[in-house]
Design brief:
heterodimer; A: alpha+beta; 3-stranded antiparallel β-sheet; 10 strands; globular; disordered N terminus; B: alpha/beta; 5-stranded mixed β-sheet; 9 strands
Chain lengths: 408, 211
């Protein structure tokens, strides 16, 4: 079911051969142990700088303690927690349903997938089942979320590379059409708070499906234009190929998930493995990378958008009429039986999981979020060692972090 | 994947001396977990990762849970002689259950695409011996998540390469996710690493060090 990057007309390996790889690229075994003099400063030519927390490239309030030898990174420690609000404690002090709007604020780009992951876990805990129409609506909104997340990520990545403005504005123009769909369905562009345990909050408004079909129908043309500008672009290739390589065995061991894992060539997509919801009904492929560098991560996201469009077309064609909420679902006085459940979905940034323990009261005893971008940061240092400072910026950009989720 | 009983049997055969216990799960999700003793946790984890039919190479979720000291009420049937006749009556027996901190690992296999296997470790108590072995040497993905459990629950992971606070700041001393955590009475004066705020905090809490 996997598709290699070279299957497409643009062969990245052939192009990589025509441009000599930058010296030292893909060699992360370049390590220097920083030594300190008695007064605390670093010995030799090592320079310690603090990138962030207000650096424009850090995608939020995020800091990296970097030790440089000349222009190359010798050590890098991510520092975060500036937006920490103890989301999990709030979840333990709120009713199950009361946490639903808070999940919007985790990865505020993808509130609908956050909603789904949480609803899925509570359904697992309480033994509820969403009706067919609700499952279709969930798939449609989740894949639209994936589209707008990936397209803005590509825009931000280009912004990090110095292509100031234009690619990001193109991406945001298209993202806006999808956010309009969310607004007419849920009432909010980003903080959707749409899903409920055992279904969805409200049915699709009249004309929504036609509008969605139009957006989905027009999206490939934009994607072709975007790719014509970017994928074969010589500057983009020389900046990204061979930069920030992540070998597959390390990626698996470090619990990296999502497009970053698949760019390293590991075929693992929770939509295929768990087949949660109704993902077994759609035919789509899982794009895989070969080199695990920043270019592959860019390419995997572009290809994933094309696969999402395929899923959307099938779902918009097949969606049935019917109820949108499980009749057994109780909105008031909801108390699952004591026990625990772990639910996970393939969110745009990776595997988003929720772990809930119920003690029979209206509030969960334990409410845990498994945030994908927090865990994907574990191997940031390994990817950056030996690279230039300018490459650190795009390696971080290719990880796709959102601080609302990292800090919680 | 094999059933948890089969896995338990094979682990006990492969790691001599390991004491494993199956923790039931009453919810409809029905995923029981495996409680491992701290002394053999690392060896058990290595076995689970490397065994060819398990290959649990992916530690998806690592987290802590705080179990307070609790009084458990249990109903027992007791035979008693009442008015010369032996009768069976129900008695409620109360006994104390010592609290502990628990670490939960959700393991999956990316190679064989199965899972989850849920691994639990428990500390001896919640105060002076809140220690478990770190499984970061086996699964690198546990590194930041164990740091988070250390930060928010105060669980010390022995053998962790870089055990520091991760979400709270370095000068913070309490563990906010514990069930008996008390919020500071005035957030404005909560000490942060900045010098002038720290000085204000000292004036606000006279006699105490920087909390």
């Amino acid at each position: 079911m996997s598709q290699a990057l070279t299957e497409r007309g643009l062969s990245d390996t052939a192009m990589a051969a025509s441009i000599p790889a930058p010296e030292g690229a893909g060699a992360p075994n370049y390590t220097v142990t920083p030594k300190r003099t008695p007064d605390g400063s670093l010995e030799g030519d090592l320079l310690e700088i603090s990138m962030g927390p207000q650096h424009p490239s850090t995608h939020g309030v995020f800091r990296m303690d970097v030790v440089l030898e000349g222009e190359r990174v010798a050590r890098l420690k991510p520092v975060f927690g500036y937006l920490h609000r103890n989301h999990e404690k709030i979840g333990e002090n709120t009713t199950y349903l009361g946490s639903m709007p808070y999940t919007d604020r985790l990865d505020y780009f993808c509130s609908l997938t956050n909603n789904w992951a949480y609803a899925l876990t509570v359904e697992k805990l309480a033994g509820l089942q969403a009706p067919e129409r609700a499952e279709y609506i969930r798939v449609i909104t989740a894949e639209l979320t994936r589209l707008q997340n990936h397209i803005s990520l590509v825009g931000f990545l280009l912004q990090d590379m110095g292509a100031s403005g234009t690619p990001l504005m193109y991406a945001f123009r298209e993202r806006e059409t999808i956010l309009d769909l969310f607004e007419s369905l849920t009432g909010a562009r980003m903080m959707c708070n749409y899903m409920r345990f055992g279904g969805c909050r409200c049915d699709l408004p009249p004309g929504w499906l036609e509008q969605a079909k139009q957006v989905v129908g027009e999206f490939p043309r934009f994607l072709d234009e975007f790719e014509a500008l970017l994928t074969g672009n010589e500057i983009l290739m020389s900046r990204t190929q061979g930069v920030g390589c992540l070998p597959p065995d390390l990626a698996v061991n470090a619990s990296v998930t999502g497009p970053m894992l698949r760019a390293s060539g590991v075929n693992y997509d929770v939509r295929k493995v768990d087949q949660y919801g109704i993902y077994d009904r759609f035919s789509f492929r899982v794009p895989l990378g070969e080199h695990g560098d920043v270019y592959d991560r860019y390419m995997v996201r572009i290809l994933e958008m094309r696969e999402s469009l395929k899923i959307l077309q099938q779902a918009l064609r097949d969606i049935p009429e019917g109820p949108i909420l499980d009749p057994r679902a109780k909105l008031r006085g909801f108390r699952p039986k004591p026990g625990e459940a772990y639910g996970r979905i393939e969110a745009p940034k990776g595997e988003l999981g929720f772990y809930l323990i119920s003690d029979g009261t209206p509030n969960p005893y334990r409410y845990r979020v498994r945030p994908p971008s927090f865990i994907n940061l574990t191997i940031l240092e390994d990817m950056c060692l030996g690279h230039h400072v300018a490459d650190v910026v795009i390696i971080l950009g290719s990880v796709d972090i959102v601080m609302g989720e990292v800090d919680r | 994947m094999e059933t948890l009983e089969q896995i338990k049997g094979r682990v006990e055969a492969a790691v001599p001396g390991a004491s494993l216990q199956i923790v039931p799960n009453d919810s409809p999700a029905g995923e029981p977990s495996l409680l491992v003793d701290n002394g053999h946790a690392l060896a058990v984890a290595r076995f689970l990762r490397d065994d060819p039919s398990l290959r649990l190479d992916y530690a998806s979720n690592v987290t802590g849970i705080d179990w307070l000291d609790a009084v458990v009420q249990e109903k027992r049937k007791v035979k008693q002689v009442i008015e010369g006749v032996e009768r069976e009556i129900e008695q409620t027996v109360e006994h104390k259950k010592a609290g502990c901190l628990e670490v939960v690992y959700h393991l999956y296999s990316m190679e064989l695409k199965h899972g989850p296997l849920i691994l639990r470790l428990r500390t001896a108590n919640r105060s002076d011996n809140a220690r478990v072995p770190s499984l970061t040497p086996v699964w690198r993905g546990a590194e930041f998540q164990e740091r988070e459990a250390y930060d928010l629950y105060g669980i010390t992971f022995e053998g962790h390469p870089d055990l520091r606070r991760i979400l709270m700041w370095d000068g913070f001393q309490d563990f906010p996710m514990r069930k008996d955590y008390v919020e500071p009475d005035d957030y404005e004066y909560e000490p942060t690493p900045h010098d002038d705020v720290l000085e204000k905090a000292r004036q606000h809490f006279p006699g105490e060090g920087p909390a």
